[in-house]
């Protein structure tokens, strides 16, 4: 043995020669975990005088210093005291290591990468921080450190910094908890007192760098000598070790005992995939003396396969242990298993017909002299036969005297040398034998394990096409995977994985056929089915026998979506279908939620909202339901979510249940019961019901997948109708259209074309078409509904009036204002005459008419009508009623359209605060009022306030109604335009692209909202001078709109105007002029010569004339536009003031300097009064005024026919793609000696609506649409 010695100079260490045993002085020894080989100081390093720069030298220094403090001159460190280049020395060292540690005076455990606070060194009691250091350190996981812990009498623990944590005595409790080693073994190195298997268990979870070292590091613990043979593999090394241990045992063992063996009726599975976590848990539980452990899980989840693998591993660790296997599905099989054990063991008396075979086996198992044993009870799904009287195979009681009958469970001895492992599908059955804490839940495989299993069963070394998808489709169930592999391998002609997957996905019936396939040997009991579906269905039969009500719950669940199944769908009995709202209340196109109208109802609901019950008291019914759930959970067919109110089940279990119901002719019956339940519990899709709808919507979609028989068709249609209502409200147009169309067709089939519920369904389809921008299709359906109701119900029936209002809204969406106005007037007058002028429905129709006026720029008429509606609602409904707040919001938007921003702001704040208090701060109506207030801030140039509020609205909207809801996208677009108004082009562009891509994916690439976002993106390019990109995108938008919406639709005209602006920006005057003339003439014909959009086009054309130096034409057209604007909008309206500034600029260029100066002075004075002195437009006007005054001595400079690079962009409000109304602005360049003409433009909102329902928080001023018009705006729609 070599030792280290610190030199007299105290700086370096040296090695002694190999010392004979009688010459070895007192020494300290180091225990540590190795780093990389390059970090550790070796024998060769010390011999060569190198290694001091290595990381590991720090350990040597620590050991030297600590030994010196303990009065020891010599110490030993394994890395450098053994010459590993000498194989003989290595062999001798391995066999001597335990002795070297045992003989050391002190052993220092050096815990790398640890430290504690100063002042705690030498404390004798462990602190919590030390506890965590010890429990988490890898020193306790290494193989060689086991003997280094047990051999020395004194073991002290130190941090890397040399701080002492304690010794083996003071830390004994913690070390015992970490290692599982008994405290007596820690404190007394006479280890032969402990059982061989127990000592093996101490090393069970420890690891070594070389696998053979796992055996070699135990030589001293067992007191045996064995030459190492690296390369022999761990299992051979362990086998040699056990032989050496056996040879060293003292004589005196029983001479005639049978040789221990393994009685497992299955061969070991060479394709077994290690489920290491489960195997480790099994080893830990089953390794305890006298343990009883159970594996519980779904049939086919791999419980028996785990038990087989565990059984074959037992002899590898305990060659003298017995392993018995008993199939425990019933009493007869249980008895057969015990007789086989008795025969194998040759137990005397087993052939005596009067012998109690159970007692014989029990006595043998209980005799400690027979050695350790493990008994595996497989498939113990019903433990009732174990707890009943003991019955033998011939049907007679084993005991003559019935009074002495005992349950079979008595034959399972509880002893320290025996362990029992149970596999069961039923947790309840397993708990008859095993404590709950000893039950191991077996779930389906992980993804990687499942894929590996399929690869092995198919003898494939790599993942092929479809393998990943197939294991996912089979939900990682081992039996299903093995079944599939057997089918693929054994069928003729051969079937590929992809072909199997295609068949599997074809239909549920095809799935069931494939999963019912009985393959060959799968290492399952002969009586067990090799089909996973049949396996489960046998359990269903068993549950039906013991608790029929639990099968009823399972039957209902099989029709649900597999996740989030609410208890409300499962408990109680079915009653008559509750119509609740679907008969008498129809979804109306709410101007806040859906963007198309206000929701209200005609008449009263006739449904009974009380819960059904079966006559039991509430507590009794609740207890009964809980018991049903417990039975299903015990069989692992379902699981309970964390909320305790919803459940989940595997899709394949659902399929098995459906096939089982079909086999008994019960599937249609239970499908109808499920539909009745869902029909009763699913509410309408309005906001106040969203929590319930969100929970039930997946189950409605599941119901929609399969149409039922005709007797259940009406309930099915109602479920789909309500689900479509909810999908429409949350902006899921694609799903809403699918569900509404199915509901419409079903109702037509069952109820006929003209029945009220059928017309409701048709109206729902129309609403969805409208939300998706398909207005022509919506119009056709709405005309059909209206004409039918006129004929069937009469032209003055409330439902007929609703249909007329819906059609009017669709006209408005297409920019057909005159037709919309005519129809709204008819609805309003009829409603007023039939149900009264102050009825809420009449007030809604008035509000819709007012919105139509506003969309035509007839703001005075709109304002008058909105005030009338608002005042009436305050008196009739109350000042805080949601409808009243809607009307206040509409009036505020009308003020904003007229540039009366202070009044608008005041009213919006009032609406927002009241709405927040009354209906909640996150209600969609409240969010609309917040967005409208933000728009008003933007109108006043208060960008920071607008931005802050828009961000708040966007984030709340995203959380409450979804990040892809059209209203959320509208909020994002508003925020992007706010960035744009501040010149933050990159942020604006990024957000607009996000809106565009999301809209394209969710709504479609040709949806009006998507086209709007594309137009916004083009405007962002134009604002940055990226003319080519802007032109390309806006042409794409325009051409699509011409094809989809029509060449005269307001949206199309806006895009044409934007393209003209882009031409003008590039100095392409002729093209710009031609397009502006076309837009203006079309707007005159379609919208009217005095419509605000027409006036915008006139101003744009005038500026185009000016850009070409055609000042007379420019002046004539601009003066005309100014005159109409002043008359139509008022002289103080912001748009009129823009016209005033434009005309002043033209006069300036035509030499009318005094007139221009007077007009710009008037413009500045009015803007100061109307907008405020700090508004960007007022500030711009002041700059112009100052420049013109300074320049009054001479003519202004000519304007170049292109837009200079420096521009300012004050914007009035936020909108989507808009007309740009250009004004000339003169600024003084700092440091320049002359005045330069600058271009700037005022963006004016067009008539363009994002579409009723999408505008949400976009400016509702102009579109009868949403946002600010929180409300009334919409016609009443069904």
Automatic annotation (TrEMBL):
Q: Which biological processes are named by the entry's GO terms? A: microtubule-based movement
* Source organism: Lasiosphaeris hirsuta
What ranges does the record give for the region Disordered, renumbered to this chain? 570-621
Q: Which SUPFAM superfamilies match?
A: P-loop containing nucleoside triphosphate hydrolases (SSF52540), TPR-like (SSF48452)
| Protein name from the UniProt record | Heterokaryon incompatibility domain-containing protein
Single GO MF descriptor? kinesin binding
Just give the chief location class: cytoplasm
Per the UniProt record, which residue ranges are transmembrane? none
Q: Which Gene3D superfamilies match?
A: P-loop containing nucleotide triphosphate hydrolases, Tetratricopeptide repeat domain
Q: Which GO terms of the cellular component aspect does the record hold?
A: cytoplasm; kinesin complex; microtubule
The record's subcellular locations are: Cytoplasm, Cytoskeleton
Name the family the entry cites: Belongs to the kinesin light chain family.
Q: Which residues form the Heterokaryon incompatibility domain?
A: 27-127
Query: Which Pfam families did the record assign?
Result: HET (PF06985), TPR_10 (PF13374), TPR_12 (PF13424)
């Amino acid at each position: 043995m070599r030792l280290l010695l610190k030199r007299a100079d105290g700086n370096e260490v040296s090695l002694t020669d190999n010392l004979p045993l009688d010459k070895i002085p007192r020494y300290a020894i180091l225990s540590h975990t190795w780093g990389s080989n390059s970090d550790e100081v070796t024998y060769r390093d010390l011999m060569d005088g190198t290694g001091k720069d290595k990381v590991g030298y720090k350990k040597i220094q620590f050991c030297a210093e600590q030994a010196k403090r303990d009065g020891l001159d010599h110490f030993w460190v394994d890395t450098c005291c053994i010459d590993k280049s000498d194989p003989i020395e290595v062999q001798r060292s391995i066999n001597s290591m335990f002795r070297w540690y045992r003989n050391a005076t002190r052993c220092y455990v050096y815990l790398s990468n640890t430290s504690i606070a100063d002042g705690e060194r030498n404390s004798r009691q462990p602190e919590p921080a030390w506890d965590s250091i010890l429990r988490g350190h890898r020193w306790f996981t290494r193989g060689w450190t086991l003997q280094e812990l047990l051999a020395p009498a004194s073991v002290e623990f130190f941090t890397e910094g040399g701080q002492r944590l304690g010794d083996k005595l003071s830390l004994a409790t913690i070390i015992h908890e970490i290692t599982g080693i008994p405290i007596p073994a820690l404190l007394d190195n006479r280890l032969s007192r402990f059982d061989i298997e127990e000592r093996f268990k101490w090393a069970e979870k420890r690891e070594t760098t070389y696998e053979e070292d796992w055996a070699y590091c135990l030589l001293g613990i067992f007191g045996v000598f064995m030459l190492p043979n690296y390369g022999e593999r761990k299992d051979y090394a362990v086998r040699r070790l056990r032989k050496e241990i056996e040879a060293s045992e003292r004589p005196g063992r029983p001479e005639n005992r049978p040789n221990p063996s393994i009685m497992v009726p299955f061969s070991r599975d060479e394709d077994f995939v290690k489920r290491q976590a489960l195997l480790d848990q099994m080893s830990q539980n089953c390794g305890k003396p006298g343990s009883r452990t159970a594996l519980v899980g779904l049939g086919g989840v791999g419980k028996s396969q785990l038990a087989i693998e565990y059984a074959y591993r037992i002899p590898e660790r305990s060659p003298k242990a017995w392993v018995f296997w008993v199939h425990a599905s019933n009493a007869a099989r249980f008895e057969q298993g015990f007789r086989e054990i008795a025969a194998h063991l040759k137990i005397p008396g087993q052939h005596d017909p009067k012998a109690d075979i159970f007692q014989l086996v029990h006595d043998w198992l209980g005799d400690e002299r027979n050695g350790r044993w493990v008994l595996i009870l497989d498939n113990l799904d019903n433990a009732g036969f174990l707890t009943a009287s003991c019955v033998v195979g011939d049907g007679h009681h084993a005991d003559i005297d019935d009074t002495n009958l005992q349950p079979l469970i008595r034959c399972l001895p509880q002893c320290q040398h025996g362990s029992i492992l149970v596999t069961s599908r039923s947790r309840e059955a397993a708990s008859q034998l095993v404590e709950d804490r000893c039950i191991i839940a077996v779930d389906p495989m992980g993804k990687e394990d499942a894929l590996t299993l399929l690869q092995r069963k198919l003898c494939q070394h790599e993942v092929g096409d479809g393998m990943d998808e197939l294991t996912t489709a089979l939900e990682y169930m081992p039996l299903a995977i093995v079944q599939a592999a057997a089918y693929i391998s054994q069928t003729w002609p051969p079937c590929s994985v992809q072909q199997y997957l295609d068949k599997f996905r074809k239909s549920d019936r095809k799935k069931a056929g494939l999963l019912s396939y009985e393959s060959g040997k799968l290492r399952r009991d002969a009586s067990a089915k090799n089909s996973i579906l049949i396996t489960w269905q046998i359990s269903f039969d068993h549950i039906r026998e013991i608790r029929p009500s639990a099968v009823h719950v399972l039957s209902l669940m099989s029709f649900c979506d597999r996740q989030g199944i609410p208890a409300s769908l499962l408990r109680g009995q079915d009653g008559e279908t509750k119509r609740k709202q679907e008969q008498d209340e129809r979804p109306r196109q709410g101007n806040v939620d859906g963007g198309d109208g206000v929701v209200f109802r005609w008449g009263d609901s006739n449904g009974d909202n009380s819960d059904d019950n079966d006559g039991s008291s509430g507590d009794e019914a609740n207890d009964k339901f809980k018991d049903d759930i417990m039975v299903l959970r015990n069989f692992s067919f379902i699981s309970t979510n964390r909320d305790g109110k919803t459940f989940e089940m595997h899709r394949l279990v659902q399929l098995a249940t459906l096939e089982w119901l079909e086999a008994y002719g019960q599937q249609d019956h239970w499908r109808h019961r499920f539909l009745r339940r869902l029909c009763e519990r699913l509410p309408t899709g309005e906001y106040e019901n969203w929590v319930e709808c969100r929970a039930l919507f997946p189950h409605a979609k599941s119901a929609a997948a399969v149409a039922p028989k005709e007797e259940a068709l009406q309930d099915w249609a109602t479920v789909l109708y309500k689900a479509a209502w909810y999908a429409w409200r949350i902006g899921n147009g694609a799903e809403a259209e699918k569900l509404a169309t199915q509901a419409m067709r079903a109702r037509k089939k069952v109820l006929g074309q003209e029945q009220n519920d059928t017309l409701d369904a048709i109206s729902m389809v129309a609403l969805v078409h409208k939300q998706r921008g398909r207005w022509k299709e919506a119009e056709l359906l709405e005309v059909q509904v209206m004409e039918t109701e006129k004929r069937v119900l009469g032209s003055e029936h409330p439902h007929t009036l609703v249909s007329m209002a819906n059609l009017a809204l669709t006209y408005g969406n297409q920019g057909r204002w005159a037709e919309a106005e005519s129809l709204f007037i008819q609805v309003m007058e009829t409603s007023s005459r039939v149900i009264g002028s102050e009825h809420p429905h009449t007030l809604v129709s008035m509000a819709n008419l007012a919105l139509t006026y506003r969309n035509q720029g007839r703001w005075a008429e709109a304002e008058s009508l909105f005030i009338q509606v608002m005042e009436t609602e305050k008196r009739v409904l109350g000042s805080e009623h949601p409808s009243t707040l809607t009307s206040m919001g509409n009036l505020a938007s009308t003020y904003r359209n007229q540039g009366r921003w202070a009044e608008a702001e005041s009213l919006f704040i009032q609406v927002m605060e009241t709405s927040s208090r009354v209906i909640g701060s996150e209600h969609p109506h409240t969010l609309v009022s917040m967005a409208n207030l933000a728009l008003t801030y933007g109108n006043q140039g208060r960008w920071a306030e607008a931005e802050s509020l828009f961000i708040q609205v966007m984030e709340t909207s995203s959380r409450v109604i979804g990040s892809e809801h059209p209203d959320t996208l509208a909020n994002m677009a508003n925020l992007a335009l706010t960035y744009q108004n501040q010149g933050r082009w990159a942020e604006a562009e990024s957000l607009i692209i996000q809106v565009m891509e999301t809209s394209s994916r969710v709504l479609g690439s040709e949806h009006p909202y998507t086209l709007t976002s594309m137009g916004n993106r083009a405007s962002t390019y134009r604002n940055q001078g990226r003319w080519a990109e802007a032109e390309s995108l806006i042409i794409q938008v325009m051409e699509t709109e011409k094809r989809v919406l029509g060449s005269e639709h307001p949206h199309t005209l806006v895009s044409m105007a934007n393209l003209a602006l882009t031409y003008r920006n590039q100095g392409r005057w002729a093209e710009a002029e031609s397009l502006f003339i076309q837009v203006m003439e079309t707007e005159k014909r379609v919208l009217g010569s005095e419509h605000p959009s027409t006036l915008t086009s006139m101003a744009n054309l005038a500026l185009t004339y000016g850009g070409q130096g055609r000042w007379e034409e420019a002046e004539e057209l601009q003066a005309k536009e100014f005159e109409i604007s002043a008359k139509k909008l008022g002289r103080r309206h912001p748009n009129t003031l823009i016209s005033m500034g434009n005309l002043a600029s033209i006069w300036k260029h035509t030499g009318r300097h005094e007139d221009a100066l007077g007009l710009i002075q008037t413009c500045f004075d009015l803007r100061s009064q109307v907008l405020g002195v700090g508004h960007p437009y007022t500030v711009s006007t002041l700059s112009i005024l100052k420049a013109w005054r300074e320049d009054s001595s001479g003519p202004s400079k000519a304007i170049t026919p292109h837009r200079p690079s420096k521009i300012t962009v004050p914007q009035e409000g936020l909108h989507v793609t808009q007309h740009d109304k250009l004004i000339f602005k003169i600024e003084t360049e700092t440091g320049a000696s002359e005045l330069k003409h600058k271009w700037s433009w005022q963006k004016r909102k067009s008539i363009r609506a994002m579409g009723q329902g999408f505008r949400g928080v976009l400016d509702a001023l102009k579109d009868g649409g949403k946002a600010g018009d929180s409300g009334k705006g919409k016609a009443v729609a069904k």
